Amino acid sequence: MTSFNWKSVAENEWDKRADFWNKKSMDMWENGSRKDIIPLLSEHLEQGSKILDIGCGDGYGSFKLCSAGYCVTGVDLSNEMIQLAQSRMRGENMSFKQGDVNELPFEDNYFDAIIAINVLEWVEDPLHALKELQRVVKNNGLICTGILGPTAGPRANSYPRLLGEKVICNTMMPWEFNALALELKLKYVDGLGVYKEGVQRDKYENLPLKLKQALTFMWVFLLRKGDE
Hints:
Largest sheet: 7 strands, mixed
CATH topology: Rossmann fold
Number of domains: 1
Structural class: alpha/beta
Shape: globular
């Protein structure tokens, strides 16, 4: 491969997966790996707050946020995803637009909170993307991110790198994201681990944070942007 544009390749890949994603998104938010995210956020965020849902996919998570009493703007890199969201998820306090997490089309300090589930670990430059989230969220606003952990599956998508190829792949683990957030002085407010079936609570609840994260399918971070 002589040239490689991470954004265009990623956009094309998610366009191709839009129908597949649409078939599984409802179950993920209602019963699966994402079911506890909105309850966690709601413990720390007032109803009526403006939320940016980055990587909104087909919009089901945005719909759930809207149903929980929030004003939601969904953004996704994939035009196919946005078309699905606009056609199937309607609400007075909900809108969707195509956009890139690396260059968000919003002014500084605009949103009360941002949610980005399984987004930042799939970008070429996670530090730049996290800075964009920090830019558009208000001072004292919340950033909720979900970062896939080691048990999310074999990194088959990463293997071509060993052959010298450039590929879209997972760029970091939860503990690496945690260090990145600390670099930007984002305060860890709350979080939760999502574990695969068979991982028993009594086996991990007393472990240090990094060891807990090492067993996760995903770790959800709730961070707060400090005063500037």
